[in-house]
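Record 1 of the preview.
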Amino acid sequence: MKFFLAPRDTQFYDLFEQDAANLLEAAQALVAFFNDSGHDREEKARMFKAYEERGDHFTHEIIKRLHRTFVTPIDREDIAQFAHTLDSVMDFVEAAARTLVLYKMTEPTPYACQLAHIVLGVAEKLNEIMPSLRDRKQFARILRGCVDVNRLENEADDVHHAAQAELFETSKDAFSLIKWRELYQHLENATDLGEDVANILEGIVLKHA
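->
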């Protein structure tokens, strides 16, 4: 038997959407952060910690509600996995901004900016399709959105491979190579986990359609 929340009890869906919206704000800020001139970079980087803490709050609220709720709208394991995976995307967005400041790196490379834009694209798509989880009639929209996220993740793979190739070819010292490689990896991880979120949503749709 498939259970869904009564229309008036929307807390899980509310939290999912708020969490996705917070990730979108952080991804928008990351693109702006990478595109700025570098002034007050340390101060601007602090806002990403605030986004991360807000995401942690949503995750904790979801898990807390999960423990208090006897009948959940979707499988309990899916709710928990969704919350933790979306939180991990946020962690890597924050890590990318923090790495740029912590290692006192120069202006982001074009590859880093490309990857940040792809992270933003993933966040935009997740935020766009999240409300459709409330209504089975909108499930097809989620599946289409998941295809878009998968395409973006493949695009990020290509950019990441090109960035790594150029890095090993042009880096003049090991320290520079290590720093940029870490930054690229954080951005790539964000897109990978964004795809994982899409895969969880796809699984939920296929179970409850």
